[in-house]
Amino acid sequence: MTITTSIPGRVAPLRVLHAARRPALVLVAHGSHDPAAAAELGLLHDRVRRARPELDVRLAHLGLNDPRLPEVLDGLSGRVVLVPLLLGRGYHSKVDIPRTLAGAGHLAGQCAAPLGPDPLLTEALADRLAAAGWRGEPVVLAASGSRDPEAARDSEAQAALLSARLGVTVRPGYVAAGGPSVAARVGELTAEGHARVAVASYFTAPGDFARLAAAAGGVLTSAPLGDHPLLARLVLERYRSCLSRTVLAVA
Predict the structure, then answer these.
(1) Contacting residues for 88 by C-beta, under 8 A, at least 6 apart
(2) In the predicted model, is pLDDT for residue 20 greater than 70?
(3) For residue 248, what are the contacts with CB-CB under 8 A and spacing of at least 6?
(4) Closest to 202 measured CA to CA, from 239, 156, 137
(5) What integer pLDDT is reported at residue 246 of this predicted model?
(6) Vertex 233, ends 220 and 203: CA angle to 5°?
(7) In angstroms, rounded to a whole number, what is the distance separating the alpha carbons of residues 30 and 167?
(8) Burial level of 48, CB count in 10 A (0-12/13-18/19+)?
(9) Any bridge partners for residue 13, and if so which?
(10) pLDDT tens for each residue of 36-95
């Protein structure tokens, strides 16, 4: 904020630095051609804003939808925390998002870790499965996939968390890069003697990936995580974690 103050002989602007103002929170989504994805992430954005009304919370996209991340960053000042709405490590979280933030030289910012794996996602996934009618079947955790081996390890870790929570076999399957595919995992579990196999949609929003998962042959497929309350809580935990690291670094 800029105010005007009288100084003998002239009137000059005085810039007030809001050092105590909390950093803006930018949710960074991948983007999708499916309008249902933008609508669902809009609901998540609203949920986060309602949970922390004192924060400046923005939603940005890496592509396909507006507003794009550079545009959102251009409209901010001061400090900012970017929380990727991504469920594992990969190119976007390691390179794309940090590089875009580095290009916004007018900001002091940090990038939070991706959302997954995390126990809160475990509970949200279990909730979505229960809503879809899950009755104890083994589960294929349907993830997008990545060429980055760390992304696969993150999906495997989330599958292990969900397996421990449900008490059944949970194996990751992929709809894009990497493998095995969701359909191959469903076939694998069926060949092992399971008459019914469930698919858990490990996606932040509806879209092509969720539709591919639903068509992979499972007896039921849960809805994407979407605007689940625990996803909003996890976003805020990632934000707080960045602030805690800043305090420790200063100390």
Answers:
(1) 114, 116, 117, 143, 146, 150, 151, 154, 155, 158
(2) no
(3) none
(4) 156
(5) 63
(6) 35
(7) 32
(8) buried
(9) 4
(10) 999 999 999 999 999 999 999 999 999 988 999 999 999 999 999 999 999 999 889 999
Q: Is 24 helix (H, G, I), strand (E, B) or coil?
A: strand
Residue with tokens 């986060």: 48
Q: How far apart are CA 155 and CA 87, in angstroms?
A: 8
What does the alpha-carbon distance between residue 56 and residue 41 come to, in Å, rounded to a whole number? 16
Helix (H, G, I), strand (E, B) or coil at 107: strand
Nearest to 61 by CA among 207, 221, 192: 207
d(CA 170, CA 154): 14
Rounded to whole angstroms, the Cα distance separating 183 from 232 reads 30
- Rounded CA-CA distance 246/227 in Å is 28
Nearest to 201 by CA among 26, 50, 36: 36
Could you tell me if 170 and 121 are in contact, meaning their C-beta atoms sit under 8 angstroms apart?
no
Q: Cα separation of 198 and 216, whole Å?
A: 10
∠ Cα 204 196 206 (to 5°): 15
Q: Rounded to an integer, what distance in angstroms lies between the CA atom of residue 184 and that of residue 236?
A: 36
Q: Which two tokens stand for residue 95?
A: 């390179």
